[in-house]
Amino acid sequence: MTDDDVPLDIVLHTPGGLVLAALQIARAIRGHKAKVTVLVPHYAMSGGTLIALAADEIVMSRHSVLGPIDPQLGESPAASLIKVVEQKPIAEIDDKTLILADVGRKAIVQLKEAAKKLLSRRLPAEQAEALAEKLSTGTWTHDYPIAAEEARELGLPVSTEMPNRVLELMALYPQPVHTQPGGVEYLPVPRQKEPTPLPL
């Protein structure tokens, strides 16, 4: 419903989610005629990265990250399921794994094509193809953090001029405490250096 000539600034903070939802948002962004800037104050992984690929500019903080867009089927990466089927004799593979590998092949092709179309707005066809391939085919683990410098090297239009007002906005949205180990908690509380005690 936004007028075509109105620029959009989208704050993106997400671990990802369903490809369907991410792709619908990404296509809407790509179809917007005015400039679209995606601001990633902390992380935009998986589906979040897919959305960011559609923007004219991606603004990242010093420590914020994007991530691969390789499809996941249940708890398994599609690329890994395909690898199992390629490396084991077929007689040793159960039907469920064969079916998942088949779905995985299709999911990778679909995501690669979608990413290529999103990227082709800004990148030459060969570069868009190569980047879509790298992001969608299991080059890295699904939680691999792509920082701003690496994102630039990959050819993405990344700036690190994050406005302070975006970081202040994030402080208004405390993040839920995760119950699974190994996660990073975003705690928007400024930390001060402890004063040096006076000698006795």
Strand order of the largest sheet: 1-2-4-9
Number of domains: 2
Q: In one word, what is the shape?
A: globular
How many helices does DSSP assign? 7
- How far is the N terminus from the C terminus? 67 Å
- Biggest sheet overview: 4 strands, parallel
Radius of gyration, whole Å: 20 Å
Mean of residue pLDDT values: 91
Low-confidence stretches: none
How many extended strands? 9
SSE succession: EHEEHEEEEHHHEHEH
Query: Structural class, please?
Result: alpha/beta
Helix content: 25-40%
CATH architecture of the largest domain: Alpha-Beta Complex
CATH superfamily of the largest domain: 2-enoyl-CoA Hydratase, Chain A, domain 1
What name does CATH use for the topology of the largest domain? 2-enoyl-CoA Hydratase, Chain A, domain 1
**Tell me, what is the CATH class of the largest domain?**
Alpha Beta
Notes on the structure:
The structure is a single chain. With 200 residues, the chain is an alpha/beta fold. The protein folds into 2 domains: 1-67 and 145-174, 2-enoyl-CoA Hydratase, Chain A, domain 1 (Alpha-Beta Complex); 71-138. The protein has 7 helices and 9 strands; from the N terminus they run βαββαββββαααβαβα. The protein has helices spanning 19-31, 47-52, 78-87, 95-119, 125-136, 148-153, 164-170, and strands at residues 8-11, 36-40, 43-44, 57-60, 65-66, 72-73, 76-77, 146-147, 158-159. The protein has a 4-stranded parallel sheet. The longest helix is centred in the middle third of the chain and has 25 residues, at 95-119. The protein starts with 7 loop residues before the first strand and ends in a 30-residue tail after the last helix.
